[in-house]
């Protein structure tokens, strides 16, 4: 029978938006405990995955066995009946560390109904039938486009001469509703390269006074043009329609299924329901873009203000010493427990009655589980089975994240 604690080795992928070589926190963390992973200073390293999704699985550091295979053989001990009954034996969440050098594709993750349909129609592209709501927690200064701006701010921009063309003829830029905004996004995503470049030029020539509290757009335009060109349709949707947010380390946000987003820069912890389905329509080469109609039809307008995606920290009832807090997104697949300790401080976490993945993003320390001691240093990653208490002690400042289902 498997032990309750399994040290893991993980891997990174190499999407072109990732940070290069050792600039990538994801790569540096991955290198700490995977002896087969070597950083190439010429390559981008975008995401370290720490779950059991088959595209980039996780393995036992000691035996090399696939974590999901270990779970399949020890379901009751490691996962527990409550989570098995709810989600089955597959780990229901997927934690990652992302290192972002430039904008990710403008994207949504389809909800369950659409995911089931897309998976049935094209299982090679849409590799599962699940939804993918997710959270992101900043490890550094983190910039993102997320959700839609308040309608009044979008209306103000659509009255500019260079942007009026994207308002449907049957509507008014002064009377936007969500269905009209859906059509505005579709018109922007379907616009010709010349039309996009011309509109962006007009937006760039707008005075800061005209833009008011949206004058940050003038700083973002040259950055996005340099990354993806002035003809990329994503420029218009992101700059005109979406909230631009900046998070400081420790802050978090939530993205629902079908929620529009594009991360811009920074290092983050990300965690999502077990899925890898995505629909992209901008900030990527044209061959990588999906149907604008599919994208806009699926959009949700639940987030319509920069404050709405923000995910508040909550005191954790798992914490014994009060050194931990949680992010609790409005979904059932996981919560994220965060423990921050100064030198020589300690924390005890009450038993979690479901599977969890715990990883240190900085610092040095140790943890004790069922009388056994484990090193808990930067980059160390562990699967922890259900029903056990975890005691953590920091040698110096230690930050630990733990995604769990219950």
TrEMBL record:
One GO BP annotation is: GDP-mannose biosynthetic process
EC no. given is 5.3.1.8
Which positions are annotated as binding Zn(2+)? 107, 109, 134, 261
Q: Which reaction does this chain catalyze?
A: D-mannose 6-phosphate = D-fructose 6-phosphate
Instruction: Report the top EC class in one word.
Output: isomerase
Under which pathway is this protein filed?
A: Nucleotide-sugar biosynthesis; GDP-alpha-D-mannose biosynthesis; alpha-D-mannose 1-phosphate from D-fructose 6-phosphate: step 1/2
Which terms in the GO cellular component ontology are assigned?
A: cytosol
Q: How is the cofactor bound?
A: Binds 1 zinc ion per subunit.
Q: Which SUPFAM superfamilies match?
A: RmlC-like cupins
Q: Name one Pfam family in it.
A: PMI_typeI_cat
Q: Name one GO molecular function term.
A: mannose-6-phosphate isomerase activity
State its location(s).
Cytoplasm
Q: Write the record's keywords in alphabetical order, separated by commas.
A: Cytoplasm, Isomerase, Metal-binding, Zinc
Question: Where in the numbering of this chain does the Phosphomannose isomerase type I catalytic domain appear?
Answer: 6-151
InterPro entries documented for this protein: Man6P_Isoase-1, Mannose-6-P_Isomerase, Pmannose_isomerase-type1_CS, PMI_typeI_cat, RmlC-like_jellyroll, RmlC_Cupin_sf
Q: Which cofactor does it need?
A: Zn(2+)
Broad class of the protein's primary localization: cytoplasm
Tell me if Signal is a UniProt keyword of this record: no
* Keyword Signal set for record: no
- Quote the function comment for this protein: Involved in the synthesis of the GDP-mannose and dolichol-phosphate-mannose required for a number of critical mannosyl transfer reactions.
Q: According to its UniProt record, which protein family does this protein belong to?
A: Belongs to the mannose-6-phosphate isomerase type 1 family.
Instruction: Please identify the protein, giving its name as recorded.
Output: Mannose-6-phosphate isomerase
Q: What is the lineage of its organism?
A: Eukaryota, Fungi, Dikarya, Ascomycota, Pezizomycotina
